[in-house]
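Example record used in the benchmark description.
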Amino acid sequence: MRFFGFADFLLDSHIYAIELHEDVTRPTAIVIDHGVTILRIADSFTGFVRGYLAGDGSVLFGQDSAIGPSA
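Model output (structure tokens):
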């Protein structure tokens, strides 16, 4: 898999990236790269934007939204 980082959160807390592949029929996943782990947070860019604007913790931080951001 190849990823392209398109946004930085809190001065490199984590990077949002989009999965790149040649098959245009495959879903384009959005992930969070924490430097050690990569977590899939959305199945599409549209899903990512919806979750981001809604303040969904699983999209913003890659965790359960009930927990909130890590300190």
